[in-house]
Design a protein that fits this description.
With about 130 residues, the chain is α+β, with helices and mostly antiparallel strands. Strand 1 and strand 2 form a beta hairpin. The chain has a single domain, classed as 2-Layer Sandwich (Ribosomal Protein S5, domain 2), CATH 3.30.230.10. Helix 2 packs across helix 4. The protein has a 4-stranded mixed sheet, with helices on both faces.
């Protein structure tokens, strides 16, 4: 699997985002709150992701952008954990990752927690799809 993060893997559709916030299942792994929704997507990728860093948590835009870059990089390098479970064409998922702490965490911790979150999401998908 190529370690890329393409435009098709980003969640941009407003109707799907609204549905995700309305019907999504929350999962919390500090420092992230993830909302997930199993739904068919119009893309070849099994997952689309939205990364949010609220302004009330991190005030400076350059700090929010730094955190988003770290999250994207950690997801890009470790998405295979989730993608192997969602390999069938009818298994697709929309995810919203929200960063919750009020300080900037180091990349190593962010990557570690992304791995934990992706494992939990893949296990949860396997359990609920039976």
């Amino acid at each position: 699997m190529r370690q890329t993060f393409t435009k098709d893997e980003r969640l941009c559709k407003k109707s799907l985002i609204a549905r995700l916030f309305k019907e999504g299942t929350p999962v919390f792994v500090y420092p992230f709150r993830a909302l997930t929704l199993r739904t068919p997507l119009d893309t070849k990728y099994p997952c689309q992701i939205l990364i949010a860093v609220p302004k009330h948590c991190i005030r400076k835009a350059y700090c929010r952008n730094l955190i988003k870059r770290r999250i994207r990089e950690a997801f890009r390098k470790n998405k295979h954990i989730l993608y192997t479970k969602l390999s069938e064409p009818d298994k697709q998922m929309a995810i919203c990752l929200t960063y919750t702490p009020k300080e900037i965490l180091p990349y190593s911790l962010i990557e570690e927690k992304i791995i934990v979150l992706l494992r939990r999401l893949s296990e949860g998908y396997e359990v609920t799809s039976r």
